[in-house]
Amino acid sequence: MMGTYTELIIKCCIKLDIPIEVHLILDFLFNSSSILPRNLPDHDFFQCPRWKDIGRCNSYYHIPRTFSYFETPYLFSRSDLKNYDNEIEKFLDWIDSYVDSDLEKGIGWIFYEGAEKPLLITYTPKQNLLQKSEIN
Questions:
Q1: Which pLDDT score is estimated for 1?
Q2: Which of 57, 62, 72, 102 has a CA between 20 and 30 Å from the CA of residue 17?
Q3: Cα–Cα distance between 99 and 79 in angstroms, integer?
Q4: How far apart are CA 84 and CA 99, in angstroms?
Q5: Nearest in space to 84 (alpha carbons), one of 7, 29, 4, 8
Q6: pLDDT at position 108
Q7: Per DSSP, which regions of 43-134 are E strands?
Q8: What does pLDDT average to in each consecutive run of 10 residues of the chain (136 residues)?
């Protein structure tokens, strides 16, 4: 059975004072590093079977290319994956406290295969909260 793919685009700044383990994870996901950090955080995201696909996976249902770049503080990525275990939402929950912004702003979107419009990902400072909302 073929599954549906969900596109994730994220563009944000990451705090400069992140732990080295977080830097290594972001480097693994978004710079195609082959070095998988030994000590993964105790977070639901890392329990997902496809957590390693964030920033690294693509399909022909969206743009058949992955574009990812992480160099502190800049993070940009376009990838798509089967989001069956809410990998994208769990990733956003995990990365939330490392986003560096004083403004409420859109930092990306989630576009479900077959949907007519993507959902906007908005970062809200002080609450450290990433929210999804429809684009009108």
A1: 43
A2: 57
A3: 19
A4: 25
A5: 4
A6: 94
A7: 67-71, 74-81, 105-112, 119-124, 129-134
A8: 80 95 94 86 95 83 77 93 92 93 89 89 74 65
Does the model's pTM come out above 0.85?
Answer: yes
Dist. CA 136–CA 74, nearest whole Å: 28
Task: Tell the burial category of 61 from Cβ atoms under 10 Å away from its Cβ (0-12, 13-18, 19+).
Answer: middle
**Amino acid of residue 55:** G
The three-class DSSP label of residue 79 is: strand
Cis peptide before 73 (omega within 30 of 0): yes
Query: Six-digit token pair at 122?
Result: 């908005």
Contact (Cβ atoms closer than 8 angstroms) between residue 73 and residue 89: no
Phi and psi at 126, nearest 5°, equal 70, -35
pLDDT score recorded for residue 110: 93
- Separation between Cα atoms, residue 74 and residue 10, nearest integer Å: 10
Distances (CA, A) of 121 to 5, 15, 36, 69, 91: 17, 18, 27, 18, 12
Question: CA 66, CA 14: separation in Å to the nearest integer?
Answer: 20
- Candidates 80, 75, 89; CA nearest to 23 is 75
